[in-house]
Structure formats: C-alpha cells, structure tokens
Amino acid sequence: MTASTTPSVITLDLPHLGNRCHLVHDGARALVVDPPRDLAAVEGAAEEAQLEIAAVADTHVHNDYLSGALGLARRHGADYLLAADEPVEFERVGVRGGDVLEVGRLSVRVIDTPGHTRHHQAFLASYGDGPGALFSGGSLLHGTVGRTDLVDPALTATLAAAQWQSARTLDELPPATRLHPTHGFGSFCAGGVTAGPDAGTPTVADQRATNPVLQLDRDPFVEALVAGFGPYPAYYRHMGPLNRAGSGRRRPRPSRRLALEELLDARDRGAWLVDLRPRRSYAAAHLPGTLGIEYGAQFATYVGWLVPWGAELVLLTPSGVDPAPALTDLAAIGIEGVATFALDGAAHGDQPTGRYRVADWADWVSGSGGDPDLRARRVLLDVRQRDEHDAGHLRGSVHIALQDLPARIAQVPPGEVWVHCRSGFRAGIAAALLARAGRSVVHLDDDWQRVAGSAVPRPRPAARPAG
C-alpha cells in the first residue's frame, strides 16, 4: 500500500443470511466485520490472501443470525470490538464513538450510529490520505436504512429518528468514502428495497443522490419508514439473547442419521419432517406428514419462520446427498442438533406416498380439464407478502401470506386450492403445508409476470423512504 491508496476490502456474500461480511486489511493484517457463525469462508479468505486476523468487530448485536465474531477472535487471539454499552455475558473490547484503533497500518475510527439498534456503531477504516472504507452494518445501506422495529416495538419510532440522524452523521464523511453495509442483500433487517450503482462500490456521495433518508426531513422520514415495515421471520426474536450470551462461539450440537423406524417414531410424536428435495420432486412423491422446503438460499429463513422454535426437526434428503450445507445454514440461525434421514428407494417402497399436481398459469386459464364443476370449486390462494398482493393480484383470489398460513389453514375456503407466489418457491412450501393438512392442492409453479396482465391492480402504496 502507498499513502494515497484506500484500504483493501474482501467482501464475502452470505446469501443464506441475506448479508455480507467484510475483511478490511493493509496487505498483512485484517479487521473482520460482522462474521457469521460458520467461519470457514472467513478463514479461507484470510488464508488465501495471506492475512493475519488481527481484530474482529460486530457493528451491533445481530437480530437475524448468530455472530461468529467472539469465536473468531478467540481462535486467532484477536481483539473483539463491540459497543461498550451493549450488555453482554462475555469479555470484549468495549468501544465508543470517537475511539480510534490501529489494525496494522489501518486507522479504524468508531462512529456511534444508533437506529437499527440502540448501540449500533459503524467503523471507518482509512490509510494515508486516500478515501476511507465505511462499514455501516445496519445503518446507512445501499438506497435505504436498516429497520428499527427489531429491538423493541415501543422504540420503533424513537430509533427511526435516531437512524435518520445517524445517516446524516455518516453523510458528513468525505464524499468518496466507500460504503460497505452488512444488511440489504436479502436480509429482512433492511428497512426497504436496497439499490445502488450498476457497477463499482457505492460511496457516501452516491447515497446523497439516491437514498431517501438523506432527502427527507426527519418527521416525514420516520413516518414513512415505520409505515413501510413488513413482517420478519419468527426466529429473529431469539437471535439477540443468543448473541448476548455469545452462543455463536461454540460448535453446533451434532446431527445424527435416523433409520426408517426412528423417522416414523419421530413423526408420530410430532416432529417436523422437512424434505429438502426440489419442489417438483416433492410434489410427485413424498412421505405423508412431511413438509417440503426446497434447499436453496432461502431454506433456513423459511424453516426458522415456519417451524416452531425448539421443535424436534428432521431433514429428509435424497440418498447420497450430503445434508451438511443445510445443517450449516440452520446452525447459522441457532437451529442445531437436527436429525437427518436418507430417502432411498426402500423407504419409499415401505410407505405410501403423497402427491399433488404441479401446474402453470396456462393450466389455470384453461380450467380443470374442461370440467366446469371442478373449475367452479377452485380456490386461488396467493401466498405473497401483503405489499406484493396490493401491487397487483387476480380478481377473486384469497390472500394469506406464507408465514401466516399454518395458523390460518382453516380459513382457506373449501375446494381445490391452487396456490401461487411470485416465482413458485413459496407456493411450493404452501402447497406442502396444505397437503400436510389434508387439502386437495395444485401448486402453480410459474412466474407471476406471465399472468400479471390479467391482474386487477389495487392502488400502489404511497411512496415511502425505504423503497
């Protein structure tokens, strides 16, 4: 590095969490910001770049995943930086706004940025006279800010006002300061839809031109931000206490493989049996009483949202498919000690299988095989979020957001239920829930845009600062 360069940043995308982790370094020593519980990617990136992990920081006590910061710091003999005013059950280096720390040749300034949480902080890394790198956590994001209703509903508006002021504090940094938030890449911690330049790393100057928090006065911003908050996963309420106890520092409880008899015993005693296969494979044949949640980036989010916290859980995978990635994703949000079962041919042969139809929008338009009685008894169930439904939906459809369906299945009108979402993923989960409850179901596994021309639009919600 020369005196005119900016700090080097390695960004790790964490799609299963909807977040990013960052390693900022001087070519030899690194500060890791907001690491996940699974440290393999972080340590792999440091090793590949030949970096010593000299310090680890959390911008805040996270509400959406278990932090790996304490464990990473202890493994590498590094300082763990966290706001001094955060009440936690472990030792750390408590930092306050205005503190300046040296990490190798980097200068790291702590900036108090309350809003997303009460004691939220940002970290500004700089070297020489070049532009700094700002690690804003859940404060100033790309085109929005972090939501303010996760700590305490009674503090939502107060923290939203603090979020507005914190954004202006960050806006006072040099315009070329590069912005590296943690949230806003799929996490429900973002207060709205994130946006940014088409290429390159956004800067503070970019946000001045695009981010509503820097364009609205405080009171209109607070009102619009709070009004725009949607639901968030049920498991979030457990993350803060677990992180304050430092739970992410220990290894997850191990899993074990079940035999068929053990699986059936688990089902009989009320365990949740989650089938990870692709949604069309699940629809074609599955063990009765199971729930199909196709494995992918959103898998852990919806398991944590739909399966009651602390319930016994068994993952069903095709024979020969390693369940380790799914177990790792679940451990990232504190779900561990999960059993697994291999769905081989013998297991299916020993048990009757469930199945339901998969269709597309052309099938919906053409009816139910030309039978007018069946067509009259069809129910179209929309399981998208409220804002998606309000933006446009089909006349006569019933709306129940996916996360509300387990408690509201009895409210689904009688008849053959055709269930849809935006792309088919959430509808696949909803179809499995309905089939598990004994309903006749058809999974509309198709893109909403193919039928959007037939939608009956409602007035779009008033523009809100979070996007």
TrEMBL record:
User: Cross-referenced InterPro entries, in alphabetical order?
Assistant: Metallo-B-lactamas, Mito_Persulfide_Diox, Rhodanese-like_dom, Rhodanese-like_dom_sf, RibonucZ/Hydroxyglut_hydro
Q: Which Pfam families match?
A: Rhodanese
Organism of provenance: Nocardioides taihuensis
Q: Extract the SUPFAM superfamilies matched here.
A: Metallo-hydrolase/oxidoreductase, Rhodanese/Cell cycle control phosphatase
> Gene3D superfamilies annotated for this entry?
Rhodanese-like domain, Ribonuclease Z/Hydroxyacylglutathione hydrolase-like
Q: Where is the Rhodanese domain?
A: 267-354, 374-457
Give the protein's recorded name. Answer: Rhodanese-like domain-containing protein
Q: Which top-rank group of organisms is this from? A: Bacteria
